């Protein structure tokens, strides 16, 4: 306990940067933008299918740009990159508040997704991986607290603001928060642009074979292709479960109000598992968590299919949250340990691009199946089997990686 308090006290400034970045990423996350979906569809005359297609295309474009420019986290000091990205983020929010055409709406969603889900999370995790070594797992877990913190505190406030002042003025408020609060705080916290004394090794940390890996090197190595389906799965399943909650409510005969406590179960499990996984990654090695990563998600998503009582929905989301929390800690620790820190931004941008891509294609694929007569609860059984199959394959991945790291 004393060591943990000393760790927090010594590195509060740097951990706070990570937390603030993940918290502010909320303004570009699916759950936040979906709060305005009704108003957006009405104003622009979009059907559910048209809005979903626009959202998917914008997200895929943001993933492509992140893959191309994610290496900025390696070449541009965070003290400059973070404030500039925040101002771009604020500009996108103003575009949402003032735009009048569908094509501009697409550009706006693209920028919101690129800045929020993409670069803000990418910058936070790259910084934690580069700044911390022996305590990297704890640092990643603390920085990731910004995600559940925003999910708990922001939605109700935004709903009230939309009802009180309208949806466009609410986006103006988002832009002001980013420009007048987030950007100055990041600039002040990062003005010296240095790492915490005694806690980081900056670019000196090497990975496998005692060298710094480039993104091209990582793609040629056996590990990244082996991890590809594991990287895709949590984002895919986590997104579609929330995206189709109205459909699930219709199929099960539940109300959205009855299902609402599931969010608390999800957030609580995400936080708890993130801290536990961060400690375990520091203590035993992140690669040893791979075989257990998808087991909770597989069991949780499969539980949705046969569930008749809404309480099982709470259990399912809680168990799914265990995988989401573990994943956030695992990748933040595993990538620098395996590939080193010199090109960490480029390599992490590849992983983040894959995860963003999975969130884009998930609603489309599952929606087509629903239209074809396969309801989402029926699909969850196949998703559960997929997770457990990948978990079995990860046993081999972890064993081989264990030998190479040794």
UniProtKB/TrEMBL annotation:
<feature type="transmembrane region" description="Helical">
    <location>
        <begin position="311"/>
        <end position="338"/>
    </location>
</feature>
<feature type="transmembrane region" description="Helical">
    <location>
        <begin position="80"/>
        <end position="97"/>
    </location>
</feature>
<keyword id="KW-0472">Membrane</keyword>
<feature type="transmembrane region" description="Helical">
    <location>
        <begin position="171"/>
        <end position="190"/>
    </location>
</feature>
<dbReference type="InterPro" id="IPR050327">
    <property type="entry name" value="Proton-linked_MCT"/>
</dbReference>
<protein>
    <recommendedName>
        <fullName>Major facilitator superfamily (MFS) profile domain-containing protein</fullName>
    </recommendedName>
</protein>
<feature type="transmembrane region" description="Helical">
    <location>
        <begin position="288"/>
        <end position="305"/>
    </location>
</feature>
<feature type="domain" description="Major facilitator superfamily (MFS) profile">
    <location>
        <begin position="14"/>
        <end position="406"/>
    </location>
</feature>
<keyword id="KW-1133">Transmembrane helix</keyword>
<dbReference type="Pfam" id="PF07690">
    <property type="entry name" value="MFS_1"/>
</dbReference>
<feature type="transmembrane region" description="Helical">
    <location>
        <begin position="12"/>
        <end position="37"/>
    </location>
</feature>
<feature type="transmembrane region" description="Helical">
    <location>
        <begin position="103"/>
        <end position="124"/>
    </location>
</feature>
<keyword id="KW-0812">Transmembrane</keyword>
<dbReference type="InterPro" id="IPR020846">
    <property type="entry name" value="MFS_dom"/>
</dbReference>
<dbReference type="InterPro" id="IPR036259">
    <property type="entry name" value="MFS_trans_sf"/>
</dbReference>
<dbReference type="InterPro" id="IPR011701">
    <property type="entry name" value="MFS"/>
</dbReference>
<feature type="transmembrane region" description="Helical">
    <location>
        <begin position="350"/>
        <end position="370"/>
    </location>
</feature>
<dbReference type="GO" id="GO:0022857">
    <property type="term" value="F:transmembrane transporter activity"/>
</dbReference>
<feature type="transmembrane region" description="Helical">
    <location>
        <begin position="222"/>
        <end position="243"/>
    </location>
</feature>
<feature type="transmembrane region" description="Helical">
    <location>
        <begin position="49"/>
        <end position="68"/>
    </location>
</feature>
<feature type="transmembrane region" description="Helical">
    <location>
        <begin position="145"/>
        <end position="165"/>
    </location>
</feature>
<feature type="transmembrane region" description="Helical">
    <location>
        <begin position="263"/>
        <end position="281"/>
    </location>
</feature>
<feature type="transmembrane region" description="Helical">
    <location>
        <begin position="376"/>
        <end position="398"/>
    </location>
</feature>
């Amino acid at each position: 306990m004393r060591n943990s308090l000393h760790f927090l006290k010594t590195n509060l400034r740097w951990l706070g940067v990570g937390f603030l970045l993940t918290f502010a990423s909320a303004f570009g996350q699916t759950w936040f933008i979906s709060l305005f979906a009704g108003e957006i569809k009405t104003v622009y005359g979009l059907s559910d299918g048209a809005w979903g297609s626009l959202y998917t295309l914008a997200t895929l474009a943001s993933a492509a740009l992140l893959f191309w420019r994610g290496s900025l986290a390696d070449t541009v000091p965070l003290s400059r990159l973070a404030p500039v990205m925040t101002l771009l983020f604020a500009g996108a929010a103003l575009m949402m508040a003032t735009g009048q055409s569908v094509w501009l709406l697409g550009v706006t969603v693209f920028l919101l997704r690129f800045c929020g889900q993409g670069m803000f999370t990418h910058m936070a995790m790259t910084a934690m991986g580069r700044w911390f070594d022996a305590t990297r797992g704890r640092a990643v877990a603390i920085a990731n607290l910004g995600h559940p913190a925003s999910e708990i505190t922001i939605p109700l406030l935004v709903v009230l603001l939309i009802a009180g002042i309208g949806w466009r003025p609410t986006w103006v408020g988002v832009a002001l928060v980013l420009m007048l609060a987030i950007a100055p705080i990041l600039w002040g916290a990062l003005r010296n642009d240095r790492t915490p004394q005694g806690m980081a090794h900056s670019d000196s940390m090497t990975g496998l074979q005692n060298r710094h890996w480039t993104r091209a090197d990582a793609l040629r190595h056996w590990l990244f292709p082996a991890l590809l389906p594991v990287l895709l799965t949590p984002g895919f399943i986590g997104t579609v479960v929330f995206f189709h909650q109205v459909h699930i409510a219709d199929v099960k005969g539940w109300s959205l109000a009855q299902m609402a406590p599931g969010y608390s179960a999800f957030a609580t499990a995400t936080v708890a598992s993130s801290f536990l996984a961060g400690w375990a990654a520091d203590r035993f090695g992140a690669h040893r968590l791979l075989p257990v990563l998808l087991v909770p998600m597989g069991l949780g998503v499969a539980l949705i299919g046969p569930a008749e009582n809404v309480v099982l929905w709470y259990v399912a989301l809680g168990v799914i949250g265990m995988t989401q929390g573990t994943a956030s800690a695992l990748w933040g620790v595993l990538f620098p340990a395996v590939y080193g820190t010199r090109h960490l931004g480029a390599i992490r941008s590849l992983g983040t691009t894959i995860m963003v891509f999975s969130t884009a294609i998930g609603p489309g694929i599952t929606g087509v199946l629903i239209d074809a007569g396969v309801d989402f609860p029926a699909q969850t059984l196949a998703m559960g089997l997929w997770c457990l199959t990948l978990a079995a394959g990860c046993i081999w991945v972890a064993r081989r990686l264990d030998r190479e790291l040794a």
